[in-house]
Amino acid sequence: RKLPPGPMALPIIGNIPQLVYQSWKHKGIVPAFEFFRKQYGNVFTLWLGPFPHISISDYETNHEVFVKNGNNYKNRLLPPLFEHFNAGFGLLFANGEIWTEMRRFTMLTLRNMGVGRDIMEQRVLEEIDARCAELNKEEVDGKIIVNHGEFLDLMVGSVINSILVGIRFDKHNKNDFFHLKHLTHQLNDVFTIFDMMAPVWIVKNFFPKRYAKTKSGMNAVSDYIGRVAEQRWEDVKSGKYVLNEENPKDFVDAFFIKMEKENKNGGHPAYTIKSLQYVLSDLWLAGHDTTAVTLASGFNQFMNHPEVMRKAKEELMRVTNNGSRSLSQNDRIETPYFNATVAEIQRHASVLNVNFWKTSDAPTTINGYQLDSGEILTAQLGGLHANENIFKDADKFNPDRFLENEKLLHQLIPFGIGKRSCVGENLARSNLYLMFGNLLLRYDIKPHTKLPSTADQLPYTSAKIPDRSVNLEFVRI
Ligand code: HEM
């Protein structure tokens, strides 16, 4: 009775039957959350099995809890299977000292890449140029048929790989990327609420295929990218590769520079090759699909809302003198409609159907409810972005909502909020602005044969999957 309200829970299984029923009835887990929110308010409790989980679906309460009292909520409830594979390392599925140190280091390193000569923007623009040059070679009868899912996947993967280990994917190593993608996509199939909660021994003994898929997906990136890092470390030690302290060329360089400094002072458990492999893998896994899914959803929205695409394009053309130069992040201030469009794409795509859960470190009061330490709660982003009280006609794709009410932009939190918010937010924002914008500037785009759907293809999993089955037609401008 001390907990925020929610549906009546049954012993052991809690509210799982109601959640399954409402997800089935409303065609997805996010509309089911919205159903519970309407019944019980912005802060409600669902018992997922024998444990109460508190979802917060409005901005003010999330800010109060995760920002003002953020120190009490920095621990993620670690899904046992993922904790098992990551062994206390990395960013996504770790807590404690190693996570704190790695988060601080990662945020600083990515921030440094975005200031001064802005390596981040440079790499994204170079990637767009190279990818478009490749695409243009496929032109037949004045148009290029593009599988946008695959095209965007590769472009985003290449940028992340180049920021992390300085290697982009070109025609020589493209297959490495598709192999990686195949393995990591297996994780999507097993990334359900069940996998987030089930004990390791149950998955290992009763669902061995699921266990094996998760393992190979988790190991794929750390093996691939870890090999590059290991080789570079060997080269650093043998003097074949010289680190430039003033100007690290990528994330791995920055890590080695810090590791050498720490080693001189006796070493630090966060700065080892093993730790680096897990961090690289987490950055890759957390950064790739989220960005590629948002881009694919965005193009699906453009196809279904050509008037929005036209208005955005007109604005971009005006700012870049009819596309005579590339769009840069410095143009943001001059592109209010396009900014609102990207915001609406992110709201609609809201890439996590169920956000990661946190545990509280100390007793707290939320909306008058006194909670013990150890309670499980989250900023339920999917629910928040579909909250009808904040975003009227939330189902509709309508960029104008952000121009009509500027305050709405603050209530949009696709990157989460507080101590566990996204560390790749700046990189993701650069990718979205520059990729959407520069592709619109270079091509007229329309659907090939039929319209892609804008609905989530698997609404019952924890992460969103957009329709990537329909090809698009690109015509050079
Ligand atoms: C459109 C793209 C992206 C979206 C929507 C997104 C969203 C999120 C969200 C919602 C979280 C969890 C917040 C929470 O637990 O409350 C998160 C965490 C994280 N994201 Fe992103 N992300 C994106 C891109 C990226 C990129 C490009 C990277 C890295 C290169 C990245 C790396 C991470 C990592 C490592 C975490 C875990 C942070 C921690 O636990 O300390 N993300 N992201």
From TrEMBL:
Keywords: Heme, Iron, Metal-binding, Monooxygenase, Oxidoreductase, Signal. The keyword Oxidoreductase applies. GO terms for molecular function: heme binding; iron ion binding; oxidoreductase activity, acting on paired donors, with incorporation or reduction of molecular oxygen, reduced flavin or flavoprotein as one donor, and incorporation of one atom of oxygen. Its cofactor is heme. Pfam families: p450 (PF00067). GO terms for biological process: organic acid metabolic process; xenobiotic metabolic process. PANTHER family: CYTOCHROME P450 508A4-RELATED, CYTOCHROME P450 FAMILY. This is CYtochrome P450 family.
